[in-house]
């Protein structure tokens, strides 16, 4: 472990453990957030796309029904 005599010296970081380990913890949180946030955004995007496709299909079905109804009443 380099210049440390024991593992407990390594963990104490020469008296700066509070700052060193909090920096590592902050880095880990940022790293997790940078991985997790795009996954959530992707999931939200696909849900929105599915909803749009469903609305378009409903509109197309309604338009087709209106055209059939219009052609049926004309004869």
Short description:
The protein has 75 residues and is mainly alpha-helical. The protein is built from two helices and no strands.
Secondary-structure map:
Layout: H1 7-12, H2 17-74
What does this structure look like?
This protein has 75 residues and is mainly α. The chain has one domain (7-74). It is built from two helices and no strands. It has helices at residues 7-12, 17-74. It is rod-shaped and about 90 Å long.
Shape: rod-shaped
How many structural domains are formed by the residues?
1
Measured by DSSP, the beta-strand proportion falls in under 5%
Using the CA coordinates, give the radius of gyration.
30 Å
Helix content: over 70%
Number of strand elements: 0
- Largest β-sheet summary: none
Average pLDDT works out at 89
Q: Give the structural class.
A: mainly alpha
What is the chain-wise order of helices and strands?
Answer: HH
């Amino acid at each position: 472990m380099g210049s440390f005599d024991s593992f407990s010296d390594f963990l104490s970081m020469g008296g700066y453990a509070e700052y060193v380990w909090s920096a590592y913890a902050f880095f880990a949180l940022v790293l997790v957030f940078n991985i997790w946030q795009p996954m959530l955004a992707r999931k939200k995007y696909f849900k929105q796309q599915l909803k749009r496709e469903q609305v378009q299909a409903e509109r197309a079905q309604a338009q087709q029904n209106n055209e059939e109804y219009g052609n049926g009443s004309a004869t």
